[in-house]
UniProtKB/TrEMBL annotation:
Keywords: Signal. InterPro entries: BTB/POZ_dom, SKP1/BTB/POZ_sf. Residues 43-93 form the BTB domain. This is BTB domain-containing protein. Residues 1-19 form the signal peptide. It comes from Glonium stellatum.
Length: 236
């Protein structure tokens, strides 16, 4: 029986479908203990979404020669969210956790996307943070911001990153609103430690607090457009 030429048909398929086929590479995530997890993922899928993985799969690096990428400093739980997102470009970042943990997951997801150079995943993480902290219906935020989230953002991103700016504007907007869900314990040790560790954040926050709350809220609500959330380009 003569084989049929399928080239033209394959070319009509979405790139995301084509990327599910072909050789795979092992991705090991987490420290060398019981929490470490391993994924075996299509190289084409990883390369389609991430410049980091594209380089690892295509260039003559150690990862390509060993057919393994090791990410010991990253978090398996968050990489699992990235894997879900790659296959569907959507996932539930707050599933099986409370809203506060959802914010922390969103922060860590953005940082992972930044490291892997995946603009779409970073945008996805910001949309989740918007959902929790800037409800579109105008209601109060679903949860409050903790120092641990701000510290993680400032420790793991470049100065004036989108994530740092988001948390600066969100903290300034809700600092003195008095709502139970977003009441800040200004005298708590966690906040005092944050002030000492990140004086740039403290100083920028104080400058923002000189404006009225209405102005601060307006700045925060404009952040969606400023961050170009709808940009789907893989390039970052």
């Amino acid at each position: 029986m003569r084989k049929r030429y399928m080239g033209p048909i394959l070319l009509t398929l979405p790139v995301s479908i084509l990327s599910l086929t072909g050789p795979a590479i092992e991705v090991v995530v987490g420290p060398y203990d019981a929490t470490q997890r391993t994924w075996v993922l299509p190289k084409a899928l990883l390369s389609y979404h991430s410049f980091f993985f594209r380089a690892a799969c295509e260039h003559d690096f150690k990862e390509r020669l060993e057919n393994r990428v090791t990410l010991p400093e990253d978090i398996p739980e968050i990489f699992g969210l990235f894997v879900q997102w790659m296959y569907s470009e959507d996932c539930d970042i707050i599933k099986h956790c409370n809203y506060e943990d959802g914010v922390y997951n969103g922060v860590r997801a953005w940082v992972l996307g930044d490291k892997l150079r995946v603009r779409g995943f970073k945008n996805f993480a910001l949309r989740q943070l918007h959902k929790l902290l800037i409800p579109l219906d105008g209601n109060e935020p679903l949860c409050h911001i903790e120092p641990i989230e701000i510290r993680y953002a400032y420790n793991n991103t470049l100065p004036e990153s989108e994530l740092q700016r988001f948390f600066l504007l969100a903290t300034a907007a809700y600092w003195d609103c008095g709502h139970d869900k977003i009441k800040y314990l200004i005298k708590s040790e966690d906040w005092e430690d944050l002030w000492e560790e990140h004086r740039d954040f403290r100083n920028d926050l104080l400058r923002n607090l000189l404006s009225s709350r209405e102005v601060r809220l307006a700045r925060l609500r404009r952040v969606m457009g400023d961050f170009e959330i709808e940009n789907k380009d893989v390039r970052s």
